[in-house]
Amino acid sequence: MIKFSLSCENSHVFESWFESNNAFDTLYSKGLLTCPMCNSTQVGKNIMSPNIVAKLNPSKEESKPQENDKKIDLQKPLSKYEEALQTLKQEVEKNSEYVGKDFVEQARMMFQSETKQRSIHGEASIKEAKELVEEGIPVVPLPWPSISNTN
Ligand SMILES: [Zn+2]
């Protein structure tokens, strides 16, 4: 037995089993093939369809578990990330001085050894932070929007 994907003049696509390729040719030449949807006898082999079906089916099966994996992967590192962020924030607040808006000025002064070296954190705009980096001052952006004043 051999399965062919067939289509009629009205673009109906359907599958049919035949004993052999020759059996199909015989039925085809006698006009005995009919579309199950519109009964048209203008029916021919649909050569493209089996390839499309073969390609579509495995990708559908693959995409489902991938979506599930992504959901799991996203949830676990997120809570760990938040945990790490919280720890980092506490460490920074414990071990460095909050200088608020003076951060840029303080960082420059420390870099030029005008004031004693210490760890500070504070607020700087992206432009200001970029300027510090360009001047060779080691600044690290903190991964949270702003730090509450501990004073
Ligand atoms: Zn049809």
Termini separation: 85 Å
Q: Average pLDDT value?
A: 78
Total number of helices:
4
Low-confidence stretches: 48-55, 58-63
Helix coverage percent: 40-55%
Approximate shape: rod-shaped
Strand content: 15-25%
The largest beta-sheet arranges its strands as 2-1-3
Number of strands: 5
The value of Rg in angstroms is 35 Å
H/E element order = EEHEHEHEH
Ligand types: zinc ion
Structural class: alpha+beta
Q: Any overview of this molecule?
A:
This protein has a 3-stranded antiparallel beta sheet with strand order 2-1-3. It has a two-stranded parallel ribbon with strand order 4-5. Strand 1 and strand 2 form a beta hairpin. The chain contains 4 helices and 5 strands, in the order E-E-H-E-H-E-H-E-H. Among the domains are: 2-46, no CATH class; 96-151, no CATH class. It has 151 residues and is an alpha+beta fold. Bound molecules: zinc ion (ZN).
